[in-house]
Amino acid sequence: MPARLGHGPFGCWPFFPFKQLFYNTRPDLTRNKTRPPEWRQLRSQWRFLQALFCYLGPPSHILWNIKWPFLFIMISAIGAEVYEVFDQFPLVDEYGILKDSFKLVSFAMSLLLAFRLNRTYERWKEGRSSLSSVGNGATSLFLQAATWIKDPKLVNDFRRFCIVWPYAIKQVVTSEKTLDPVAAAYLHPEELAVYSKSRKGRQVVVTKVRQLAHDANLSPEQFLMMETVIQQTWKSAGDALRIKFQAMPQGVALVCTGFVEIWCLLLPFGLTSNTRDIDVVAIIACAVISLLLLACDEVASQMEDPFQLMPVEDIMRTYERDINRVLEEMESVREATRVADARLANSGVDAATWPHPIHDSSSSDYAHHITRTLLQSAVGLDSEEIIPAMTNSRADAGSVLWLSATPATAASGSQGQDLKKPLIDKSITV
After folding, report:
1. CA distances from 71 to 7, 31, 121, 264, 291 (A)
2. Residue 117 near residue 296 (C-beta atoms within 8 A)
3. Distance (Å, rounded) from C-alpha 253 to C-alpha 247?
4. pLDDT digits over 161-177, tens only?
5. Three-state DSSP state, 248
6. What is the pLDDT of residues 381-400, one digit of tens each?
């Protein structure tokens, strides 16, 4: 179940106030990519208020997902406090051993949580990168096909299967039983039947793409370049599938979760005041600490299967639109170039040399302009105070430059100074 979906009895959740507070005010980043409206929500000052209630509502529904271990821990905490009330029962931690133990193991627990959160975030990041690489690879492949192949039918077949390829990976990583209807519409019924019958439909797509590249009669260099893109895209798809089908070592996950849960179960005994009274503050402290720690473990558990936390549908639609625009944009660029060449030919301008550079880097004016600007910014003189002179006849940008003061400058601040003596005796290379 996607983490964004609400939870509750009788299918009536979320209620109106809850939806207004915790759904409508938070960007839905599990279904939409982060565009300017989402960024405005993420950077809004309301995020501080939302952070106080981060355990309620989307995107992770933390409190709902940890309700059973949290309830069990709270029952244990209340039971421990009730136990302390009865005088006939001995005190559990009369000498403060549990309190000292908690201090000793708290650092180890923080390391475990940090390790698990870091590893699962790396899985999420790698999963997102792999999906992007698949889409970018399919788009690059079609750009090559549209540029090099002249047969319109082959180009159209490339377009169809380059669109289907990312959707085939999406079907696997999101555990869908059938190909997305958007992608299925690009296949003929016979092709869709072959795809559906195959145990790994994505291999059917790649095989067809390679066949199209072979049928295009490309040059060896072009075919090699297309094959390189296919192999890189196939590798990225394999990385995404590896994340989907290989969880983190179960022992690591169990140790991290078990450490947190056992620590929280024993926490009430370390918070008791040994006063033979029910310590409400200790119960509240136990609830808050347990909520914080179990929430970290829950977030790590959700990121272990990262594709439920990504806008996979939106990502696929983006690459579909990109591929469909290639032919239109390529034809528009070609038409614009033809019109521009015709206009230049009518005006008598050689299209091979247009446009002329604004500055000729070998000219004296350009060298003087650059050096004057650099020296003015470096020395802090006004433009009238800078008199650049080249030490040789070639006025190029690499010449050695000298500065001399103007009479006005000498009169104001350099009295008695030889006006022909360089004000700055340094070599400056532009």
Report:
1. 17, 31, 27, 11, 10
2. yes
3. 10
4. 999 999 999 999 999 99
5. coil
6. 554 444 444 444 344 434 43
